[in-house]
Amino acid sequence: MFSKVFIVLATASAACATVFVTSPVAATTFTGGQQAVVTWQDSGVSPTLADFGPSKISIYAGNAQQQTLLQTLDASTDVSKVSQLTITPDASIGPNSSEYFIRFESLSLKDATQSQYPALAFSAKFTMTGMTGVFTAEILSQIAGQSTAPLASQTAASVASTTAQATTTSASKSAASTASSTKATASSTATASSAMGVRVGWTAVALSALIGVSMF
Question: Where would I find the Yeast cell wall synthesis Kre9/Knh1-like N-terminal domain in this sequence (predicted)?
Fold first, then answer.
């Protein structure tokens, strides 16, 4: 039933500039087996809707790099001549979830930066209820972002390693600083007792490192 599609991230990003989907949006809920309306308009950014032209409109799940076709809604709709499509989502394509999105695939226009791919546009992820199906393990993996391996998994591992190392280093420095401060306090107390009237003041120095690690 499902068709797996590999998409290069740059392609997916560049393709969002033509068809601006006004429904569904992130707050939208469609119901399986019931009619709904997909609407769009020109984004005002080149290429135009006329350039995008006839398009395949489908429901997908996945991530920016790897996506699975769940249902073809229309095999050829000229997005420059109409601005909406009445659909009936198949309830069996998946479970109740907020991981669905509409994908527009131009049948004639190629991506400007990678001509081996068609121009694409996407809606926001939206929710579907009244569903009776399930997501396969592969789709769930795509949703989780794991299917973008090896790059994504290596990046995640690198971030985890860096975070762990930073935490360990920070903890070690903190422990060393605490031990040094304790020793200094004990030494100061002993000096004060033996000198009987001579006060010794110690200045404590604290070092903290703020490490920020940033990574659809």
Answer: 23-117
Q: Which CATH number is 73's domain given?
A: 2.60.40
Nearest CA to 57 among 26, 79, 90? 79
What is the number of domains present in the chain?
Answer: 1
The two structure tokens encoding residue 111: 């991506």
Residue 68 lies in a domain: yes
Q: Which domain holds residue 104?
A: 19-146
Residues of the chain with pLDDT under 50: 6-16, 149-175, 179, 182-216
Mean pLDDT score of the chain, rounded to an integer?
74
- Per the omega criterion (within 30 degrees of 0), is the bond before 150 cis? yes
| HSE, side-chain direction, 13 A CA sphere, residue 147 | 24
Distance CA 65, CA 63 (A): 6
Cα 14 to chain centroid distance, Å, stands at 16
pTM of the predicted protein model: 0.64
